[in-house]
Specification:
With 339 residues, this protein is of the alpha/beta class. The chain contains 13 helices and 12 strands.
């Protein structure tokens, strides 16, 4: 089957008949899990298998499983530290921190892959200016070059188990105080200021590390009136042309308040896809999903389809085999000791 342009979510721990129909819709191409979808490692494995039976193996299944505040699966999964702890460790011992970053990326990815999920939307590449509560300890730190090194190591760990990496939130969410889940953030800086700091991790990791990028629902008012996720300037001119990124572009959740400036849910989806996104996310709003599926006036091109298929993770061992690995036990001890 061809891969559609919408990634949606589920209400609970089992598939309903309505959800099966939504997943089979030709415009649907992906599914993202939340904490409400998780009861146990076996349950999420079974749910994932059921989804695959409904839609086939080409379908993308994802989760936000960064560690710290943003970790959807808790019981039976390792409690991962926020990546800011790696940034602090880097200030004390850079070499040790980079080794730990790779192990943290490996551990996160291995546990997610072992239950059949393709990828976690990670890592965060935003810089921590100390003003954004929604970013905060989700960031490796303030120095963009430190972030590049730590993120590169973390991504190598993800790639070691075949998980694609998604850098977020392009071109940088850390300097604005407003949470884009709740409001419409506006960044008043010039292009030179943004290029001097926030874009550096994206630009340096675009060619050899990142498989995907997720833009921010932030308006950079001196450069474009649209939030980055709806801006052909940011996605086509800057990300595709100037940075030469050729991976997948995922929108951030279209149900967030920062996306409201683009209109109805179908209008938001069409605006994001037209601006350059390959797949749009719409979560926690079933009526919005139905609006998109009923009214979206957009057909995905073959180039985008080919990019999206690269987000399919390779084969990986099952959970029982992972938990039998000496490496897993050792890495758990090392990563959970990070403070």
């Amino acid at each position: 089957m061809s891969m559609g342009s919408l990634m949606l979510d589920l209400d609970g721990i089992e598939l309903t008949q309505e959800e099966k129909e939504l997943l089979r819709h030709p415009m649907t191409g992906g599914l993202i899990y939340f904490t409400r979808n998780y009861e146990s490692a076996q349950q999420i494995t079974d749910l994932t298998r059921m989804v695959r039976e409904v839609v086939g193996d080409e379908f993308l299944i994802a989760v936000d499983h960064e560690g710290g505040r943003v970790q959807r699966f808790r019981s039976e999964f390792t409690e991962l530290p926020a990546i800011a702890s790696l940034g602090k460790k880097y200030q004390e011992n850079p070499d040790e921190a980079l080794l730990l970053a790779r192990k943290a990326g490996w551990l996160m990815a291995a546990e997610v892959r072992a239950v059949g999920i393709d990828f976690s939307f990670a890592p965060v590449l935003d810089l921590d200016y100390g003003v954004s509560e929604v970013i905060g300890d989700r960031s490796f730190g303030r120095n963009p070059n430190d972030v590049v090194k730590l993120a590169e190591a973390y991504i190598k760990g993800m790639h070691d188990v075949g998980m694609p990496a998604t850098g977020k939130h392009f071109p940088g969410h850390g300097v604005v105080q407003v949470d884009s889940h709740l409001g419409v953030p506006v960044d008043t800086r010039t292009a030179d200021e943004i290029w001097a700091d926030d874009i550096i991790p994206f630009a340096k990791l675009a060619k050899n590390s990142l498989d995907a990028v997720m833009p921010a629902h932030v308006i950079y008012e001196k450069l474009d009136k649209h939030p980055a996720g709806f801006s052909s300037y940011w996605l086509k001119e800057v990300l595709r042309q100037q940075i030469a990124f050729d991976g997948v572009i995922f929108s951030d959740d279209l149900n967030m308040e920062g996306a409201s400036v683009a209109g109805s849910y179908a209008e938001r989806a069409e605006a994001a896809l037209s601006a350059g996104c390959d797949m749009v996310l719409l979560c926690n709003n079933r009526e919005g999903v139905i609006d998109v599926l009923d009214n979206l006036n957009f057909f995905q091109d073959q180039t985008a389809m080919k990019r999206l298929t690269k987000m399919k993770a390779g084969l990986f061992i099952n959970r029982s085999a992972l938990l039998d690995m000496d490496k897993w036990h050792k890495v758990v001890d090392e990563v959970t000791a990070i403070v």
